[in-house]
Design goal:
The complex is a heterodimer of chains A (234) and B (788). Chain A has helices at 47-54, 77-87, 103-111, 120-126, 142-154, 172-189; strands at residues 3-16, 19-32, 36-41, 62-67, 70-71, 88-91, 160-164, 192-197, 208-213, 216-222. With 234 residues, chain A is an alpha/beta fold. In chain A, strands 6-7-8-3-9-10 form a 6-stranded mixed sheet, sandwiched between helices. Chain A has a 4-stranded antiparallel sheet with strand order 2-1-4-5, covered by helices on one side. Chain A has 6 helices and 10 strands; from the N terminus they run βββαββαβαααβαβββ. In chain B, α2 (15-52) packs antiparallel against α10, α13 (416-427) runs parallel beside α20 (699-736) and α14 (429-467) runs antiparallel to α21. The longest helix of chain B has 55 residues, at 640-694. Chain B is elongated. In chain B, 48% of the residues are buried. Classes of the chains: A alpha/beta (234), B alpha+beta (788). Chains A and B meet through α2, β6 and α3 of A and α13, α19 and α22 of B.
């Protein structure tokens, strides 16, 4: 499998006044095209920091992050923006849809900046919301909003889909629908998908599970038997 | 205690908005305090000057009377102190000027530190009681010619050229504002006052034991009408031209009018400013409190009552008003000193009192406070009325409507970013409307701040370009026969001459009366033209009756075809009634005109002239002036081009401070409003903007959302602001409509373009600042915030 990310010795230190917070301490990780990776960890374990660094929203204090042949560590703000624009799709816990745009328009936003976008309607159909194209976020349920966010993220055919607690704000039933949408995007588009969560049950649908404790990777586990989202129990 | 800490943190967090809001209020308060304090200072300075230097209350000119009459006049009931004088107009030959300067010689008593209309000596000394040729020169005239004590002047005194030595330079309450007859404003280079010991003037003008002018002060309870009646009766056999009070005294009348005009401007323009700034203060504050909705809800969920929260925000409002007021008071006070000093240089008061208009300052702050309380607490009431759970949720868009875009077929033309901008503007209808109104007010204030230039240019064009087309006006010492006209035509370089007769009269209608100089003109004047409202020249056919200015008609309460009584003040003629045949509007003092032949009949005289208007070949002007300086019969020369220049210089100097302050504050208000609108737009859409950045939009692309919103509201505001500004200008012209000045409402395209340009620049500057803030947006933390 083609290696997409190579993370070597990455540390992140936040300075808050006189106090130094070590969010990541020497993380090493490799991620490959098409795999579904779940990062597990308690609050404060550093999983969101890792995701932000992978997505070019933040930079490490030390260590290197390589995306394919590009070194993200030395990239400036504009280069990181271009990286996000061309390669990354984000899904956040609180959806982050533009409230003044319909579902279709939210998805079409990325079509403006992507090089080979999907048809926005097709993106919505992948997440099962083809019939809700003209609805505004306030007219959709939480699960539907998250699925629109997924459609928006995959609309640009990203190389990597980064999901930060995508089911964190949802009930079980809705969470499963959302995870199905993510799994479908992963399998149909072959996108490297990284889902961070503190919900261990989700780990059952991953190819690999990365567990983080206190800013370090404590365990990387390859799953031989993947479950479907509807088979998950939590 | 917690709320106290919240208050401090609120102020820290919103310091940029707080400063911008306070500045809006400060601008309004500062202009108001500046103007009102300056007016009060000038009023107090003038009154103290009049009191300390014994400015007279009654004045009268006459041909000649024996000094023995003075005792009888002094015993008229009501007169406290009476002083007789000799006053003559003469021409001066000043080496640095090709044209002669006009000057009024006024006699002074042996002890000038006593008596009425005392001279305040600024330099040098009083003339020696026994000297023959020592004089004091008026300070404005001396300054205009850089005359110092010890310098001399050549004066044409009744045909003899005499050298007068300046021994002192002074000012007098009687000549605070000296205007040469025929001019609109003072021209200190061409007209001045010389004070000369009485015995010297008696000898020079053959006036031993006689006088031709008197002034008097009155007891506090004196009947002015009775005093004037008795003085007129006593002076009638001696060519009395009618006694008059301060109201008709040239300097005081002009000064009062000038101050009245400034006072009107001092109230109207700053009041508009204050209203606009408090309105904006109110708008911005309201929006700011709406932004605090979630914080208010959190505090309520902790258990704070509505009243505790209301009091918390009330303290916040009080703090903003106190900041705005403090800056406004300080700036206003400083500016008022600047304004007072500038005006007092112009008026030359010996004592300048700097008064602070405390009451007006309190009123201005109170208005700001009320605006804050009404706006702020109104918004707060809406917020605290909501249940905390509801308040913590963001407001859904008020309309969901793409629909008009799609219906209009524009939906497909616009990108999602374009739709995002338009929907934000559309869905926050109330906020958008308030921002548009705020920026429109900024535009309006900018128009108001700069329209005076247009008005002045228009008045000058009418006055000096289309109406007074003569190059030179000559006035004679005494009315001349028709030969004066022919003499004038033979002066060097003269290409055209138009005679005029000017007679001091009192026009009465019912109980109203007005004292002025009635001008007798030829039937179709070509040089000195009187223009009607459509700028067409008015003709004066023989036997048609009087032509009066609209202002005079208002003062006399007459209309066209009414009959008025003309009382000639120059000689012992019976009053005559005449019909008002035409009325026109002018921009200067009230005036009355009559056909010259009709005026001769009224005066029971054959062709007599008071002076002539002349067109002159510019190449021969020097020769003409040489000849005029040698002509004893000429009392005054008025060069129209010089008058035009001095009018322009003076009126621009007079309105300079007001214009500068208005323009600066206009710009500050414009920036304040747009900056706030942009800040609020940033705060309200920061989450959307951060999302756009995260999904890969560049900083520049994301900034277009913000710039687009500010651009739309600015472009919508401009067409509203321009007509509102025109309305403000109209109010300002109403305020300047005084007895001697009226300004037409003229606002040029240049002014509209200037206001538009400044507002666009302000919009650009504000969005650039806010864009910098956008660049510093913490993308991750914005995205971590939960939205329902």
């Amino acid at each position: 499998m083609e290696r997409v990310f190579q993370v070597s010795g990455v540390s992140k230190v936040y300075r808050m006044g006189d106090v130094e917070v070590h969010a990541l301490r020497g993380v090493d990780l490799e991620l490959y095209r098409g795999e579904f990776v779940v990062v597990l960890g308690a609050s404060g374990s550093g999983k969101s920091t890792l995701l932000n660094i992978l997505g070019g929203l933040d930079t490490p204090t030390s260590g290197t992050v390589k995306f394919l042949d590009h070194d993200l560590t030395s990239a400036d703000e504009d280069e990181r923006t271009k990286f996000r624009r061309d390669h990354v799709g984000f899904v956040f816990q609180f959806y982050n849809l533009i409230s003044g745009l319909t579902s279709l328009e939210n998805v079409a936003l990325v079509a403006e900046i992507a090089q080979h976008p999907l048809d926005p309607i097709q993106s919505l159909e992948i997440v099962g919301l083809g019939n809700r194209a003209s609805h505004y976020p306030s007219q959709l349920s939480g699960g539907e909003q998250q699925r629109v966010a997924i459609a928006r993220a995959i609309g640009k055919r990203p190389d990597v889909l980064l999901c930060d607690e995508p089911t964190g704000a949802l009930d079980i039933k809705t969470g499963i629908v959302v995870l199905e949408a993510i799994a479908r995007a992963n399998s149909e588009l072959g996108t490297l998908t990284v889902v961070i969560t503190h919900n261990a049950s989700i780990a059952d649908m991953a190819d690999r599970v990365v567990t983080m404790i206190d800013g370090q990777i404590s365990k990387v586990e390859a799953k031989s038997c993947k479950r479907l989202p509807r088979e998950l129990v939590w | 205690m917690l709320l106290h800490r919240v208050l401090k943190s609120d102020l820290r967090r919103m310091w940029q908005q707080s400063v911008a809001i306070s500045f809006l209020l400060a601008c309004g308060i500062a202009t108001f305090i500046m103007s009102t304090s300056a007016m009060r200072s000038l009023g107090v300075s003038r009154d103290r000057y009049y009191r300390d230097y014994r400015f007279s209350e009654v004045f009268a000119a006459l041909t000649r009377a024996p000094q023995s009459l003075a005792t009888r006049l002094a015993s008229i009931p009501g007169i406290e102190q009476l002083q007789t004088r000799i006053v003559r107009s003469v021409l001066l030959d000043i080496p640095s000027m090709i044209e002669p300067a006009s000057c009024r010689l006024v006699s002074i008593e042996n002890d000038p530190a006593q008596g009425l209309n005392r001279i305040c000596l600024r330099k040098g000394r009083f003339p020696d009681a026994h000297s023959r040729n020592e004089v004091i020169a008026s300070e404005p005239f001396a300054d205009a010619h850089r005359i110092q004590p010890g310098d001399d002047l050549i004066v044409n005194m009744d045909g003899r050229k005499e050298k007068l030595i300046i021994v002192g330079i002074g000012i007098s309450p009687e000549f605070v504002y000296t205007v040469q007859p025929g001019l609109l404003l003072a021209d200190d280079r061409r007209f001045g006052i010389l004070w000369m010991p009485r015995h010297s003037m008696e000898a020079a003008f053959n006036m031993e034991g006689a006088f031709n002018n008197l002034t008097a002060t009155l007891y506090p309870n004196a009947s002015i009408a009775d005093v004037l009646y008795h003085v007129d009766r006593s002076l009638k056999p001696y060519g009395g031209a009618g006694a008059y009070t301060r109201r008709d005294q040239e300097s005081d009348c002009r000064l009062s009018d000038e101050m009245h005009q400034m006072q009107s401007m001092a109230y109207v323009t700053p009041f508009i400013f204050l209203s606009v700034s408090t309105f904006l203060f109110n708008i911005v504050l309201t929006r700011m409190i709406h932004q605090q909705k979630e914080q208010i809800a959190s505090l309520r969920s902790f258990g704070f009552t509505r009243y505790e929260l209301a009091f918390h925000y009330f303290k916040f409002l009080v703090f903003l008003v106190a900041c705005g007021s403090s800056v406004g008071w300080l700036a206003g006070w400083r500016l008022s000193i600047w304004m007072t000093d500038t005006y007092s240089i112009f008026f030359r008061f010996p004592i300048v009192v700097h008064a602070f208009a405390f009451r007006e300052a309190m009123v201005a702050s109170l208005i700001g406070f009320l605006a804050a309380t009404v706006g702020g607490l109104g918004a707060l009431r809406q917020v605290v009325r909501l249940e905390p759970a509801v308040a913590m949720r963001p407001e859904p868009p008020q309309t969901l409507g793409s629909d008009w875009l799609d219906r209009a077929g524009l939906g497909k033309l616009l990108s999602p970013m374009g739709k995002m901008i338009l929907r934000r503007v559309e869905s926050n209808a109330m906020a958008t409307t308030l921002s548009i109104l705020g920026i429109a007010m900024g535009v309006a204030v900018l128009v108001l701040g700069s329209f005076m230039e247009d008005t002045i240019a228009f008045v000058m064009d009418v006055q000096f370009g289309r109406s007074q087309r003569q190059d030179i006006m000559l006035t004679f010492n005494d009315p001349k026969s028709a030969s004066g006209f022919y003499d004038a035509t033979h002066l060097p370089g003269v290409t055209r001459v138009e005679p005029f007769r000017a007679v001091p009269v009192r026009i009465r209608h019912g109980t109203n009366q007005y004292r002025l100089t009635l001008m007798g003109l030829t039937e179709r004047p070509e040089l000195y033209r009187i223009l009607d409202e459509e700028q067409k020249p008015i003709t004066f056919p023989e036997g048609r009756g009087l032509t009066l200015t609209k202002k005079l008609c208002e003062l006399l309460d007459v209309q066209r075809n009414d009959m008025v009584t003309i009382e000639i003040l120059e000689n012992d003629r019976k009053p005559e009634t005449m019909q008002v045949s035409s009325v026109f509007s002018n921009y200067t003092a009230p005036a009355a005109f009559l056909n010259q032949a009709d005026l001769h009949r009224l005066m029971q005289e054959s062709d007599r002239l008071s002076g002539v208007f002349m067109s002159v070949d510019s190449k021969e002007v020097d020769l003409l002036y040489e000849a005029v300086k040698e002509t004893p019969a000429i009392a005054g020369v008025l060069d129209n081009n010089a008058a035009r220049k001095s009018f322009k210089d003076l009126i621009q100097a007079n309105t300079r401070i007001m214009r500068i302050v208005n323009s600066i504050f206009g710009v500050v208000i414009a920036i304040g409003v747009i900056y706030n609108a942009a800040l609020i737009a940033l705060a309200e859409s920061s989450r959307d903007l951060a999302t756009l950045r995260v999904i890969g939009f560049s900083r520049r692309e994301v900034a277009t959302v913000l710039v687009g919103e500010v651009a739309i509201i600015t472009l919508l505001a401009i067409p509203i602001g321009l007509p509102v500004g025109y309305g403000f200008c109209y109010l300002a012209t109403l305020a300047i409509d005084t007895e001697t000045h009226r300004f037409p409402l003229v606002v040029s395209r240049h002014t509209f373009a200037y206001a538009t340009l400044v507002i666009l620049m302000a919009a650009l500057a504000s969005t650039l600042i806010v864009r910098r803030m956008l660049n510093q947006l913490d993308l991750v933390s914005v995205l971590k915030v939960k939205v329902s």
